[in-house]
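re the bet — no i am not wrong, look at it urself. input seq straight from the record:
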Amino acid sequence: MLTFSFSQAKDYPDQRNYSNFIINLELDPVQKLISVEGILEYLVFDDSLTDFSFNLHKQFNIEYFKIDDSDLFQIDSSVTPVRWQPEAVKIVTRGTKVYRKGDLANIKFSYSGRITDWPSWSANVVDKEWVEMGLYFPWYPEFGEKFTYELSVGIDPAYHVFALGEQSEKSKRIIFKNLNPVTDLIVCASKDLSISELVEDDYSLKMVNTGLQEETIDLMQSDIAQILKNYSQWFGSKEKLGFSLVISKREKGGGYVRESAICLGGLKDSTYLSQQNKYIRYLSHEIAHLWWFGAEHNWEDWLNESFAEYSAMMMIREIAGVEEFNSMIQKKIQESQNTVAVWGMDRNNPDAQKVLYSKGPILLKELEDKIGKEKFIALCRKRVENEINTSEGFLTLLRNNESQEIEDWFREALKR
């Protein structure tokens, strides 16, 4: 593996607030070969820590995984993979001392592999036509906390590369430096990848795509502007929103949202123009996660997903009309039949999808009907203002703004 010099950590003014990656990535999309070498300046948040755990794709061959002066690590493939990382194994590395809160542990790593295994539904792929890598098959040592990064990418110059952060080039390598903390390091690459940017007074949008026509891009930008305007009026404006919209070349895997990026799959000119309302709902759901994102990814995930889905349905009601909205309601009522309760749901339950995206939104519709549209929107706005991301917190907000009776009713609704 090639060795490169790394920038010094002093370039990162917030290094004591977040961990920081410095990574060199060699990427061969045709052969599906990935080589990674880097340093993680790991900021310790625990009072006492000796073992550091990371998730990494199982097909990587590890050359080394070191923490400070210790090269002790083990691969634990017996641990049940995280639901959204089915091809991952756990890497556990042990230091030679006890690390305390506020300490920086320097973790060096080097590994490579030909990545061929991922589920058909995965939103991450490596192929000669399209590369989209992130935590779904973790190509970097994923550890579940926010971090900043400097990423240097080596790739066939015929490919164009996208990642979040300030972009530059040096010695035929593409450099991305991101001082805004993130929970995922997304890298996209394609020979026909293009980037356009729209800057408005209250937001900026970077659109990453692989061949959409100007007519489609203009229409999408207009729809996004309307969505952002309505959400800002309903849930509260966000200071100078800046985000990227990645139109993925993959057909499967759906969409997902990170701190300042929305990634959508399977979108084409013909389908957007002929099914505009469908894609307005699709975009609205993902954009809503800029407001609804802070709950844990267990059963409390309804505070992320059900709120985002019902927000999207509200957007359809606003843009496409009540008839379209009511049609969606009826469909979700049918999908909600005979499903488990929201409260305490196992996130791996086969019903989870229907509960989060159908049953949860129906419960929010019932709540809106019970207290009225204006009060419901005000309640959502207060949830955002107070950063409420637990069910108990939301129920307390409901009691304080409505009544004990309404809180009791909605608590029971979540449990039925």
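see?? Residues 1-15 have pLDDT under 50 and may be disordered. told u. also The two ends are 56 Å apart (CA to CA). so pay up
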